[in-house]
Amino acid sequence: YRRLHARESRLSRFNQTERKAMLGSYTKVLFVRDPFHRLIATFLQGMGISPSFSSFVQEVLDSGKHNSSVAWKPLVSLCRPCLIQYDYVVMFGFLRQELGHLLRRAGLPAGSLLPRLTDSQVQWTYRWLSEQMFSELSAQQRKQLSHFYRWDLAAFPFSSSFLSD
């Protein structure tokens, strides 16, 4: 494609026809994670300077969508699932199963290339962490977070997310 090596790297800088031509030659994979789990991971990695999870969440909510960090920005605004038709959507917590499928589809030996992933252990840990962290939040913060991530919750099957209610 003639503009494949152009200086522009943002997909939004290309018109619809150019985007379709460029993306048509790629296998598009999107990795998604429950937005509440993303917040927990960001907080635990020390990316927020807040002393408590509740105050960190308040910082996130106060920053708004336009000034937010990529670490907690809604996925829909980052990956544009309405603009790009992804071939695969891989959910965090099901990596071993889904990556194995992807590798087999690509004709690669899935077993030898995958690291040891313990998806059920990861899911249990995040469930426990979610319960602990969610209990720190006020009802107002819970409502605001659900609103902040409403499009992510609508676009992806995060049915067990604490924010789904």
Structure explained in plain terms:
By secondary structure, the protein is mainly alpha-helical. The protein has one domain. 50% of the residues lie in helices and 5% in strands. A two-stranded parallel ribbon has the order 1-2.
Which features would summarize this protein structure in a list?
5% strand; globular; mainly alpha; two-stranded parallel ribbon; 165 residues
The poorly predicted ranges are none
The largest sheet, given as strand count, sense and whether it forms a barrel, is:
2 strands, parallel
Please count the beta strands (DSSP E, at least 2 residues each): 2
Helical run tally: 9
Number of domains: 1
Helix content: 40-55%
Order of helices and strands: HEHHHEHHHHH
Distance separating the two termini: 45 Å
Spatial shape: globular
Beta percentage is under 5%
Mean pLDDT across all residues, rounded? 80
Structural class: mainly alpha
| Strand line-up in the sheet with most strands | 1-2
Computed CA radius of gyration, to the nearest angstrom:
18 Å
GO molecular function: sulfotransferase activity
Membrane topology: Single-pass type II membrane protein
Subcellular location: Golgi apparatus membrane
Protein name: Carbohydrate sulfotransferase
